[in-house]
Amino acid sequence: MLGMIAPKVCCRRCLIGVGHQMVLLEGAVTVWCRGGRWVIGLLVGLSVPAANAGGGPETTLLVVNADSPASLQVANTWIRLRDIPEHHVVWLEGLPAGDTIAVEAFRRQVLAPVREHLAATGLAHEIDLLAYSAGFPYAVDFRADEAAHGLKRDKLRGEGGSLTGMSFFARKVEAGQVDYLAPYANHYARRPVGMPPGQLSSRAGGEHDAVVTPVPDLRLEGARGFRARYRWGRGPGPAGMDDSDRYRLAVMLGYTSLRGNSVPEIERYLTRAAASDGLQPAGTVYLMQNTDIRSRTRQHLFASTIAALEARGRRAELLPGGQRGQNGREPRGKDDVIGLVAGTRDFDWASSMSVFLPGAIAESLTSYGGHFGHFPQTKLSEFLRHGAAGSSGAVREPYALVEKFPLPQLHVHYADGVSLAEAFYLSVLSPYQLLVVGDPLARPFAQFAQVSLPGLEAAGQPEGAVAGVLRLQARVREAPGRPIERLEWWVNGLPLGNAAPDEGLLLDTRTLADGAHELRVVAVEAGAIETRSYVRQVLWVDNAGRRVSVIAPPASVAWDDALRLAGEAAGASWVRIEHLGRLLAEAPVRDGRWQASVPAARLGLGEVSLRAVAEWPAGPEARSAALPVMVTLPPLLPASVSGTSAAGEAAVVAETAGLTLRVEHVGQPAQETRVEGLGKRLPREMNVGKAARLLFAGAFEVKADGLYELDVDTRGTVALRVGDQAFVPLHVAAGAGGHQTTRFALPLATGWHAFELEVSSPRASMVNATLAGPEPAFVIGGDRARSR
User: Over the stretch 193-234, which tens digit does the pLDDT of each residue have?
Assistant: First the structure.
């Protein structure tokens, strides 16, 4: 059958009740009832928003910091790993520096551009997940909103939330509301069956470190796939619900500044996570038990978690400290870790001899697991460094409040087949302070259908181009016991419509540009989780005889070079070069030929896919085939300072440790001294805050080849020379307290590099400089700095 059934009912709002939880579906255009089940109608030429769940690239928006080489590189890797479609990436520019962003700046510079992109592309009802690449502040200071509402300071509430938690509540944050600070504000999270959520709390009798009685037979509501288009509520009906009761899942792919991960580490754990989908790993979830309040806060939920996992045929094990060689902090000698529930201030995974399986989730309940600017306590990045697919941690002091952390039942939901992002938000009742990091689309326990598009093989080549109305029919092989409810059809990352599994689609190709398009069919599983399985196919269209070609496109380009493209488009007036819908360049067509140039640095390192789109004075456009280009490292600056043998290292370090600092005041002789490094308070007696110029000289060491980001934080104007080469700032961003961060991109070979850092009109008693990218971030100082 073809999806042209006339609708019997037409409405714009469909209310669906699930137990005591109410969800209000927005944006449906036509619906009809088949066998007691409401489904969305599909008509030729009509674009119908889909009700998405289960997690997938079509329901994801990737958010990238366009001013960060690390952010661009991580994004390019994840786009390739996760097959992110056209229009599902937004690049932000001019973000403020630092690890914390003020709530008003967050609204203006992050949430507003995301919302505008979704509105412009028509994806506002389709996107369930925001995936932030590296290069973003991890915390949001919401004190201004507290003050606006007259809220007094409350240490249990804190003064800041996480990037991901505040994005989850984006609609409330944009409206200036603060009710997301309530203990049980996440209505998507699963509640206990037959008892109020307060029974889960570790608070009792007014003592915040008291532990409630274990609940071995505790049962939570079942896992549900997430839909951003739903209003999530807890009443018997929609009364009191509004658009602010709609959420979006949010996860950060990686953090690259101090105490975070290197770009190669992020790429490794994202690659492992993507490869875990559908593997059904036979691993074990380990629940660590010790006497620390960090562990005791969730121990009353351990027995029910183990029972629920075992009922699903999954393994779980309690590991008390002091028994069988275990310390109660991290599992010792376990090579099958698929999940970890820990509660400890510090841990040493490297010495544990334990191994994470691909797709593993590991997290620890502690105060500062996601507060990278707070040195004590091991960070969530340590789990990711050793291969976990995802982790979480608080960005501000959360206290031992169980609702601010994942319930151990996170692993039960994960075992039911939801995505990593869904598992976290299903299990955190109050997620505003929790930073979730990793691969949000990891689904190791999902069971996927096999989807194909028979008969379209020829249409994947220009010589097999189709025209007119095309009859499409997908073939779906369901996973055992997992019937398919509907098929979603997408073209170039935009929804075309829905159909029943046995229905086909009539696609009027005359509504599309001539040239190459991407057709996707997504099979959505029936049931609460709605696992998504898809196939994609290149579809060439030729209705108007228009063509744009790229002649001999380069396969690669160096990061510091320009990508030069040329081609033909007979009769066209202009050609655009696009990257997943982002405009990179425009060029006029003269005598049927065109040429364009794109700075490779705008693309970022790694593999990217570009496209040429030609415009005519009237009528349809034409699209070229996808143009894969590899952006490679530029020539690396060789080490300019000789290394030292291990035997002589200690003597050399003692003799040359630190950097030389020259301080110049107007009308006074210059002063010189040696300082330990950057990131330390400078000698007060030299009155550096009123100096006309500071000049740091010495050498720093890098231990891996690659493209580094050097961020210099100060109040003055910064100039940099490394070796014999002067570098121009890549970006200058405003920071807190009148500071600004000047970013340089440095292609460096392993070894010691001589440098000079000049700060004019510093107006501060400290200059900080951090190198990050190919290796974990470090401050230029200590054993990574030498004077010359």
Answer: 877 777 776 543 344 444 456 666 788 889 999 989 888 877
Is the pLDDT at 439 greater than 50, yes or no? yes
Strand partners, 9: 31
Q: Which two tokens stand for residue 476?
A: 């779906």
**DSSP-based three-state secondary structure for 786:** strand
Give every CB contact of residue 173 below 8 A, 6+ residues apart in sequence.
103, 106, 107, 111, 140, 142, 145, 166, 180
Distance, CA of 569 to CA of 624 (rounded, Å): 10
DSSP element (H, E) containing 251: strand 249-252
| C-beta of residue 61 within 8 angstroms of C-beta of residue 493 | no
| Bridge partners (DSSP) listed for residue 392 | 436
Contact 312, 407 (CB under 8 A): no
Structure tokens of 737?
């307290």
3-state secondary structure of 232: strand
Question: Which of the listed ranges 290-294, 439-443, 650-654 does the model predict with the highest average pLDDT?
Answer: 439-443
Per-residue pLDDT reduced to its tens digit, 457-509: 999 999 999 999 999 999 999 999 999 999 999 999 999 999 999 998 899 99
pTM of structure: 0.92
Token duo for residue 716: 């003055």
Cβ 522 vs Cβ 533: under 8 Å: yes
The answer to whether 689 and 764 have CB atoms below 8 angstroms apart is yes
**Nearest-angstrom CA–CA distance, 132 and 318:** 34
Euclidean distance between CA atoms 244 and 176, whole angstroms? 10
Report residue 382: phi and psi, to 5°.
-70, -40
In terms of Cα–Cα distance, which of 112, 135, 136, 122 is closest to 88?
122
DSSP state at residue 766: B
Residue 524 belongs to what H/E stretch?
strand 514-525
- Scan for tokens 């080549």, then name that residue: 461
Overall size of the chain counted in residues: 788
Got the DSSP string for 587-616? EE-BTTEEEEEEEGGGT-SEEEEEEEEEE-
**Integer Cα distance of 696 and 388 in angstroms:** 40
Phi, psi angle pair for 568, to nearest 5°: -130, 145
**CA distance linking residue 160 with residue 374, whole number of Å:** 14
